[in-house]
Amino acid sequence: MQEHMISDALFNLMKRKSFQQITVTEICEEAAIGRKTFYRNFELREDVIEFQLDIMRDEYQNEMN
Question: 2-35, pLDDT tens digit by residue?
Fold first, then answer.
């Protein structure tokens, strides 16, 4: 659940600015979580992107089956 909140927050921020400009602090503020929660779920911002890609891949595979 927290992973999804973090992912949603990152993608909402990416509507307003580039990925390179977004900090973990901003993601946490957008998701209304603490930095510890972020790092409990992800090591890097890039891991959030990978998490979302995994979800998309799984959804695609389910649709194909």
Answer: 999 999 999 999 999 999 999 999 999 999 999 9
Long-range contacts of 16-23 (CB under 8 A, 24+ apart): 19/45, 19/49
pTM: 0.88
> Backbone dihedral region of 34: left (phi > 0), alpha (psi from -120 to 50 degrees) or beta?
beta
Q: Which structure tokens are listed for 9?
A: 């927050």
Which tokens in the block code for residue 58? 């799984």
Strand, helix or coil for residue 23 = coil
What residue type is 40 in one-letter code? Answer: R
